[in-house]
Amino acid sequence: MQYPTHPRLHVRDARDAHTVFEAVRLGHLRPVVRRLNEMERSTYVHSGAVFVWIECDDDAGLKRWTDGRVWGQSRMREPYLFYDEKLPYDNGNLPSETNRAPTFRFVDGVSKTGPSSSALSHQERSTNHHKGLVKQAYSAWVTPNPYARPQKWHLTAYFTYADLPHLPTIDQDGLLATIVLPEGVYKSGKARTREDEEASVPRTSPTSSPPPSSAGLMGGRLPPLVAVGPPGSFGQPRVQVARLPEDQRVIQMLNSRHIR
């Protein structure tokens, strides 16, 4: 049986997500290592539940998150993505997500003591009072140690607007409040930086250079020539003979012209 990484928590910003990641990295909390089955989905996908999972390319790991529910269009509230659950009675009664005219204004966040909450910001900007679940998603590149390749870690949390004011935050959790974040381990993964893209491209050695092109004999520079004079003609002009066999025809032609 797989359980939520944290059973009841309100994650507000990127630092909160990184704190949960660090608790997982230290072994205090457990990540999800496979897809949830039907029993786990029905039991543990509820308001307050937080799941951490590590993206994996092989068949034994997780490539994407599935929970068996139908979600509306994503909404970005930095640094999270939010999805409102589509309820059965929503069809035909509410305007579609694409046709709905937004009545909110994008701001930096809500005015409150402590870190600004992306979830509360999403609630304030919504055009209707959604009564179902809301899914909150965040990703980061995690480098467990300086010699390891970065891994893509994900956090998926659920809440309802009615329950959100009652969910505890990081500073109200006895374990998470003591977590100290290390430097250089977590980097927001919502978009790949130029450094990440350049690191994925193979680089050639700085000492390597393309092979020289073979220029034509008459178009390029001739190889060094050795001056040879005929016997007994010290005051006569010397004839130049090429070191390379392919230059002999040219030298002979030049020599014959000079003799004439």
Automatic annotation (TrEMBL):
<feature type="region of interest" description="Disordered">
    <location>
        <begin position="189"/>
        <end position="238"/>
    </location>
</feature>
<dbReference type="GO" id="GO:0003677">
    <property type="term" value="F:DNA binding"/>
</dbReference>
<dbReference type="Pfam" id="PF09729">
    <property type="entry name" value="Gti1_Pac2"/>
</dbReference>
<protein>
    <recommendedName>
        <fullName>cAMP-independent regulatory protein pac2</fullName>
    </recommendedName>
</protein>
<dbReference type="InterPro" id="IPR018608">
    <property type="entry name" value="Gti1/Pac2"/>
</dbReference>
